[in-house]
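Each field is listed here:
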Amino acid sequence: MAETGAKAKEKLGELKEKNSGFRKEFIEFINRGSVVDLAVGVAVGGAFTAIVNSLVNDIVMPIVGLIGGGVDFRDLKLVIPNFFGGDTEAVIAYGNFIQNVVEFLIIAWVIFMIVKAMNRINRKKDAKAAKDAKAAEKAEKKK
């Protein structure tokens, strides 16, 4: 019996060592910048999605509807009667598909414009930083 207890303690020690290594590896994984950056990106992306959806649904789509003669694509559908004698019909809501495609294109355009503006701002910052670095280098050489 004493042998069994010793073996059990030995196995427990091995498990603790494995668990300690696993825990350490997990903590290192979580502390990497990319994991934290990804989590922040997902959170900000969720908030940004709400803003873009509001822009599309509350501002852009009503204007598109006016231009299109007040057509709400979501109402467009094709109703296929049941040829087998039942009361149910098949409804193909192609208008909802069109609406989603239009919304996707608008969202993609809005995101493109935001990224384009951010790139322009970053280029200006980079150019200013390069100009400042050259000026500092010239000033250093004059000393």
